[in-house]
Design a protein that fits this description.
Blueprint lengths: L1 H27 L8 E8 L10 E4 L2 E11 L6 E8 L9 E6 L6 E6 L12 E2 L1 E3 L4 H17 L6
Parallel strand pairs: 1-7, 2-6, 5-8
Antiparallel strand pairs: 1-4, 2-3, 3-4, 5-6
GO molecular function, one term: phospholipid transporter activity
Organism: Cereibacter ovatus
InterPro entries: ABC_MlaD, Mce/MlaD, MlaD_Phospholipid_Transporter
């Protein structure tokens, strides 16, 4: 009898942990219903390093998430849709860019507010965008410029 009770309790604990994990995973993946937000759109040259569910931050504080990424077949740019929490008004001349948390960190979407008095409404597009910067490309430019300097003759002799 005691064995059955302990097995039932252990099973209930495992089931509760599994349900908690599924709820957490759904929230992280952006599957939770968040009616307290509004969508904004932006078009990037490259969205390398971000996916649906990536954080949208303003001054380092998470204010939303990326909700959709799609290739625009006319412009060959990546169209992104983000959701921003209600109550946060974004000036119409704001910029949106893909930033990195560091060399080994992940990427996130950063909003840089402008100074306009007009604010963006639901479904508006942020015009000023900056796509992802490839670390490999930057390193290749740095290494390439260093070798060009070394190959130049030192004038004077």
């Amino acid at each position: 009898m005691a064995e059955n009770r302990s097995e039932v309790l252990a099973g209930a604990a495992v089931l509760a942990a599994a349900i908690g994990f599924l709820v957490y995973a759904g929230q992280v993946a952006g599957l939770s219903r968040d009616s307290g937000s509004y969508p904004l759109k932006a078009s990037f040259r490259s969205v390398e390093g971000i996916t649906v569910g990536t954080d949208v931050r303003l001054a380092g504080v998470k204010i939303g998430t990326v909700t959709d990424l799609a290739l625009n077949p006319q412009t060959y740019f990546a169209d992104a849709t983000i959701s921003v929490r209600n109550g946060i008004e974004i000036p119409s001349d704001s910029a949106i860019l893909i930033s990195s948390e560091g060399l080994l960190g992940g990427n996130f979407v950063e909003l840089v507010p402008g100074g306009a008095l007009d604010v963006l409404g639901a479904g508006d597009e942020i015009e000023d965008t900056q796509g992802a910067v490839s670390l490999i490309t930057l390193l290749m430019k740095f290494v390439g410029s260093g070798s060009d300097d070394a190959a130049e003759p030192s004038g004077g002799k």
